[in-house]
Amino acid sequence: MSIERLFPTQIYTCRPAAAARLGPRLLRESRQLRLDDASGRRWSTRNYPGGYTSYGSACRMHRLSPTFAALERAIDPHVRAFARALELDLTGRPLAMTDCWVNIMPRGTAHGLHLHPLATISGTFYLKTPRGCAALKIEDPRFDRMMAAPPRRRSASRANRLWVHIPAQAGALVLFESWLRHEVPANPAGERVSISFNYGWF
After folding, report:
1. Full strand arrangement of the beta sheet holding 192-200
2. In this structure, is residue 181 part of a structural domain?
3. Average pLDDT score over residue span 139-149
4. Tens of pLDDT along 65-76?
5. 2 assigned to some structural domain
6. Helix axes 66-85 and 17-36, enclosed angle (nearest 10)
7. Average pLDDT over residues 78-97
């Protein structure tokens, strides 16, 4: 008798030194962007209550800021490594960053369950993560098909849980395939700042 694990959901995490060195500058620019970006603040009021995101206004920061472009260069090799681990066939077309935006979550702000359509690999680089701040919560992609499944034991292994929390840590990079649904629950701590991005293959 044997049990084989198939169709794994893979998550890539690391602490890239090149990106970490950019952290203070990225944090300053992110806060300045919030001050300057009136249309982004209006968009956030409607779509991201309590927080600020440049997703609806300045979502290609890697094309607008040399500091964010440097972050793209620091992330690129990790995206390539993750694509190799996923055994993606990228013949003829490389993965390229298509979107890059700022997220600032004060206490009580949440980001609802979602995925990233029309992208291949998505991720987040954390700039500021106060102790106890909200984690990234990812959902088992089979969840909507579990019509008659019993609940999982409290002691279930990480691989068998329906939800997994990945702690947010300043200087950490998290990559996942863009079809994976995820959310950030209401932030119970101080201001949490991150940069999110998509890589596409088309």
Report:
1. 11-14, 173-177, 121-128, 192-200, 96-105, 52-53
2. yes
3. 90
4. 999 999 999 999
5. no
6. 130
7. 95
- Residues 35 and 52: their CA atoms lie apart, in Å, by 10
Mean of all residue pLDDT scores within the chain: 96
Tell me what pLDDT residue 147 has: 86
Answer yes or no: is 55 within a domain: yes
User: What CATH number is given to the structural domain containing 165?
Assistant: 2.60.120.620
Tokens of 22: 């950019």
Average pLDDT over residues 173-197: 98
Give the domain range for residue 69: 11-200
Total count of domains within the chain: 1
* 184: β partners: 111
Q: Which of 182, 58, 180, 178 is nearest to 118 (CA)?
A: 178
Tell me, yes or no, whether 4 lies in a domain: no
Report the alpha-carbon distance of residue 68 to residue 30 in Å, rounded: 10
Burial of 155 (0-12, 13-18, 19+ CB in 10 A): exposed
Which pLDDT band, with edges at 50, 70 and 90, does 143 fall under?
A: confident
